[in-house]
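Hey Z.,

So I finally got round to the zinc ion thing we talked about over coffee. Here's the setup:
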Amino acid sequence: MQVTLLGTGDTTGTPTVGCDCDTCERARERGVERTRFSVHVERASGESLLIDFSPDFRQQFLREAVPLPDAAVVTHVHFDHLDGLGNVYRLLDSLPVYAADETDPQTGESVDETVRDRYHYLDRVSVHGRTPFEVFEAAGFQVTLVPVVHPPLVSYGLRVDDPETGASLAISGDTSYAIDEDARAVLRGADLALVEGLVHADLCEHHPAGGDHYDDEGVPRTFGTKHMTLTGARALADDLDADRSRIVHTAHFVPPERAFADDVAVDGERFDLAGGADD
Ligand SMILES: [Zn+2]
Ligand SMILES: [Zn+2]
Ligand SMILES: [Zn+2]
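And the result:
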């Protein structure tokens, strides 16, 4: 299983348009970036699965030269994860898109219903609802969605298993630290875990809702109510016990010495997962 991190940034990305903060300047100097979130996963057979449709889809596929996907999963309906779907127009003859089928009390619709409504005019895209915790097949992978915590909207993490090699990938999705144990159990023990960490914990002071889910040293693992701090991301990565883990969805508000720490991903990272992680 080859995993390519197409987009590792938050909703404005790094560098952010019009921003000359130290982190954006450092990214420009180094020629690295964190575009909006998306992950490409390819099997040895060449079939591939896309996780989330970044608004930066076109640039990401040109840059990484990975094949166009045979199927895709949408984790939640925020702009930075869904609004790139229109890019598939005239590129693909057909594309099944999978998303959770639970009704979101906030919108009165499930993720699959919202995706279908917004992109009804793309007749080559078919949208399929899938029930969290139930394994389904997509592009030859076995995929399991799990609910995470990203109020006010429903949001999902997922596990992707390659049935041929046993390789596995876990993605936290956009979430606070308050992920239930039954969801964590599905995500645990993968070859690679991608965990979201938006900002460093000190910034919680400046969030109207502050921080939450404090660790033993009193450091918040949740920023506000819907994202993890870098501390939270590291704690979750620890708990998920993957062979390797990378922090994703990181914002330019993190100062450069922390934003470019060894465990924080940038676009274009690639992982060849052979399988055989301890469960
Ligand atoms: Zn900036
Ligand atoms: Zn989100
Ligand atoms: Zn996001």
